Amino acid sequence: MKNITVIQTRKETGRPWEQVNNIEWKQKSDKAVLLKLFPEKQHQEWLGFGGAFTEAAAYNWSQLSEANKDAIINAYFNKETGLGYNLGRTAIHSSDFALGNYTYVEEGDVNLESFNIEREQKYVLPFIKAAESEVQETITILASPWSPPAWMKTNGEMNHGGKLIDKYREAWANYYVKYIKAMEAEGVPIWGISVQNEPEATQVWDSCIYTAEEERDFVKNFLGPIMEENGLGDKKIIIWDHNRDVIVERATAVLSDPEAAKYVWGTGNHWYVSEEFENLSKVHDAFPDKHLLFTEGCIEGGVKLGAWHTGERYARNIIGDMNNWLEGFIDWNLVLDIQGGPNHVGNYCDAPIIADTEKDEVHFNSSYYYIGHFSKFIKPGAKRIAHETELADVSLVAFRNEDESIAVVLLNETEAKKEMSIELEGEVMDLAIPARSITTVVFT
């Protein structure tokens, strides 16, 4: 490892991705080395980064000029100048970030004869296809339902929770199959599905409640077998798709049952409520043959243009989860409007890119640049490497890419500058980490 590249984004200047010059190796001395890297000790393989192609995001994108539509696609999906996203998430019919509740079938159509995804052809599919055209390869897409159709549920509506009625479990499992096949007929392969978005939350928007045992039994007796019967056994099934606070209990209930676990690829987590990152390691340690994927996170409460803490929250959560066996990161909405929507129940949020569709302007939040400190330098196929550090108040993670380059990301959320040394393969470099900053060091 001869060459060192240091890239920093700091609150003091607000300028993203600045390269720091004149960083060189020095002779190892008796001075304490605060960070040691061990590239020979490797852990999980990284899948990549991405965001959600919600109807709201796709609608916002569609309202912009061709120049700004291209700018957003490039910003997220270009491998050289953008974030290099290769993952995505779609909703199986409506979520809260849709223009309203909708499904793909007519009322009471148990045989799903009326099934069609014509609605997605208006906004969502063009957005995905534009992204895939930029990437020049298939995007790895996870599809998630927020609620079954109202007539399949105990409360008779898509919103406000309720449960899937037992007699419709087979029809609902077939609904996933229909969705996957319909999307793939449109030229958009689906990599995997989650059983239910946030199955423990009764929301004022599209939601449905499963206990851990209900999720287990639905996977074991309906979803898993029906996917296999329809030639979709290669599609990944992800359980939980909710917060870290009770992820251990929920994953254990499903994965401890061999007949359910054989259908499950892994467990999805969100960042709301809890930053108990160690819970991911508990799941990994109990079920090391299963996988962990971050499936949703955003800044709640509407748009926060120019805020710095929002980017720090992204970085803190990415680092925390990566150090606990996470294998991929999917952000929530790719593009929201200046209110933080549209959202059909007013549950407005922030996003890395905000579009003022009336003025045809695009704004980049600190979260966009903070994500880039990871996604631009930690590539799909990279493996996390071990490290030891003595430096308090700096969060960090390190990966070795397939081209043998090593990327280290360091987050300083404090108001104080931090001085440190990094040792790699017997050589040492000094590094200053500014207050309220994020730094990526790349060794090649």
TrEMBL record:
Keywords, comma-separated and alphabetical: Glycosidase, Hydrolase, Signal
Span of the signal peptide: none
Lineage: superkingdom: Bacteria
Single GO MF descriptor: glucosylceramidase activity
SUPFAM superfamilies the record matches: (Trans)glycosidases
InterPro entries tied to this protein: GH (IPR017853), GH30_C (IPR033452), Glyco_hydro_30 (IPR001139), Glyco_hydro_30_TIM-barrel (IPR033453), Glyco_hydro_b (IPR013780)
GO CC term (a single one): membrane
Any one Pfam family match given in the protein's UniProt record, by short name: Glyco_hydro_30C
Every Glycosyl hydrolase family 30 TIM-barrel domain range: 48-378
Limits of the Glycosyl hydrolase family 30 beta sandwich domain: 381-441
GO BP terms in the entry: glucosylceramide catabolic process
UniProt family annotation: Belongs to the glycosyl hydrolase 30 family.
Name this protein carries in UniProt: Glucosylceramidase
Taxonomic placement: Bacteria, Bacillati, Bacillota, Bacilli, Bacillales
